[in-house]
Amino acid sequence: MKYIDEFRDRKVVQALAQEIRKASTQPVKLMEVCGGHTMSIQKFGIPALLPGTVELISGPGCPVCVTSRSYIDKAIAYSQQKDVIIATYGDLIRVPGSESSLEKEHAGGAQIRVVYSVMDALQIAREHPQKKIVFLGIGFETTAPGSAVAILQAYREKLTNFFVFSAHKVMPPAMSALIDEGVKINGYIGPGHVSTITGMKIYEGIPAKYGLGVVISGFEPVDLMQSILMLIKQIETGNTRVEIQYKRAVKPEGNVKAQQMMNEVFEPADDWWRGLGVLKESGLKLRSKYSAHDAEVNISADGMVPLREPKGCICGEVLKGLKKPKDCRLFGKVCTPRDPVGSCMVSSEGACQAYYLYNR
Amino acid sequence: MCLSIPAKIEKINGETAVCSVGGSTYEANLMMLSVEELEPGDYVLIHTGFAIQKLDKDEAEASLEAFADFKKLNEEMDREENEKNQRLI
Ligand code: SF4
Predict the structure, then answer these.
(1) Minimal Cβ distance to B52: which of A4, A116, A142
(2) How far, in Å, from the CA of A176 to the mean position of ligand 1?
């Protein structure tokens, strides 16, 4: 397939591995912040290609993983209102809440629809004017503009039965928070598809404040190996900065049109991240102009159960790169993708699932 | 969910496009891009039903050219290793 196969060339990967071996003289820890990278790295066996000096650790870039259980609890409470239809990406459906999951509620008769795109949720709203459609908006800067497009469209069409329950988040505060907390890393493999939207500017604080490099990477093995090489070279020469490896998809300025729509609809708000707690201005909430489409303003969450976190799950530590999935006593025994205990095992972008599937 | 796939635009109908990936076709919403700048044959990244960026052909080719040099280097090293019967690195 075009734009994929060329970036999987084994010979090129091997050559890059040799270059990395040559360039790397000191031990480094590089963090990939994007869950998509975590998955690719495990799937393509990247760690085995690297010299002993280079360690990769996964970060907080899996949207399902960092989202709080109380978000699921609230979505379930919404689903129990009789005129509500929940529309959600498939990723969320099996995530355990404190007492139940959307999947279980669905089996029990709640109206929950899995959609591929937020535009499908908008269509459900058009077709069911007597129902309230609540779309579960999770994801980072890659996904948030889609929710913005849908809200703008609903606003224009006066579609008063379309609501978004936003847990959208932005990446940079988490990247800073990790370093502030003392997690020791030497550079970031920057999230490719987030950056497609945001461009490279949002990361400039990382080299400026912490002296760490950020290389925005694609998702194929050649992309990842080249990004690692670029980071190693930055570290070895002491010239740390923001660079783009994934140039075919990421422009320095990003996708300005998408940014504008996102800014029109959302404003920054403090938000809670698994492992990191509340981070200032790390979430996106609907601006008051669009509050008619804000689920939290308009839909009752009566009956929401109190928050209960599972015992033994170290997903928060995994998301900070402090522990590996295999350090969890539940990993692969009690907690499996079929029967997940924590969110890091549910999502295909979660580190626990990626390790379970490719690196057990 | 953060996954995005490169897809080829087959046909543009107003603000949506029919795109193909491998053998399958997808509808992509074009509202995040400037439709005037797109035409059939272009590749776009699709994410949750939206085309989020047009893939830059020149940049992709530039990368591939750089990789071709790596590949050559790798092949030379392979040959040398075989001749000397020892690993270089
Ligand atoms: S293996 Fe399961 S229980 Fe353990 S940290 Fe991962 S998600 Fe949590």
Answers:
(1) A142
(2) 24
Residue partners of B4: CB distance under 8 A and separation at least 6: A142, A193, A196, B45, B46, B47, B52
A244: nearest Cα among A189, A292, A180: A189
- Could you tell me if residue B53 is inside a domain? yes
Q: What is the CATH number of the domain that holds B23?
A: 2.30.30.140
Closest chain B CA to residue A65? B1
Q: Do B59 and A117 lie within an 8 Å CB cutoff?
A: no
Report the separation in Å between the CA atom of A100 and the middle of ligand 1, taken as the mean of its atom positions.
17
Q: Which atom of ligand 1 is nearest to the CA of A312?
A: 3
Could you give the domains of chain A? 69-169+256-298 (3.40.50.11740)
- As for ligand 1, residues whose beta carbon falls within 6 Å of it are A 313-315, 318, 325, 328, 330-331, 335, 341-342, 344-345, 352
Of A121, A117, A119, A144, the C-alpha closest to A262 is A144
Q: Which of chain A's residues have a Cβ under 8 Å away from the Cβ of B74? A: 11-12, 14-15, 18
Does B18 fall in a domain? Answer: yes
Q: What is the pTM of this model?
A: 0.90
Residue B27 lies in a domain: yes
**Number of structural domains found in chain B:** 1
Mark A227-256 as b/e (b = at least 16 C-beta within 10 Å): bbbbbbbbbeeeebebbbbbbbbbbeebbe
Question: B67 lies in which domain range?
Answer: 6-88
Contact A196 B52 (CB under 8 A): yes
DSSP single-letter state for residue B86: S
For residue A293, give the nearest of A180, A79, A150 by alpha carbon: A150
Residue B49 falls within a domain, yes or no? yes
Between CA B31 and CA A257 the distance in angstroms is 9
Interface ipTM: 0.87
Look at ligand 1, atom 1, and give the residue with the nearest C-alpha.
A331
One digit per residue, the tens of pLDDT, for chain A of length 360 reads 677 777 888 888 888 999 999 999 999 999 999 888 988 998 889 999 999 999 999 988 888 899 999 999 999 999 999 899 999 998 899 999 999 999 999 999 999 999 999 999 999 999 999 999 999 999 999 999 999 999 999 999 999 999 999 999 999 999 999 999 889 999 999 999 999 999 999 999 999 999 999 999 999 999 999 999 999 999 999 999 999 999 999 999 999 999 999 999 999 999 999 988 999 999 999 999 999 999 999 999 999 999 998 889 999 999 988 899 999 999 999 999 988 999 899 888 889 998 999 887
Query: Which of A38, A67, A69, A313 has most ligand 1 atoms within 8 Å of its beta carbon, as the pocket-test mutant?
Result: A313
C-alpha A56/C-alpha A246 separation (Å) is 19
Q: Which residue of B45, B49, B62 is in closest CB contact with A116?
A: B49
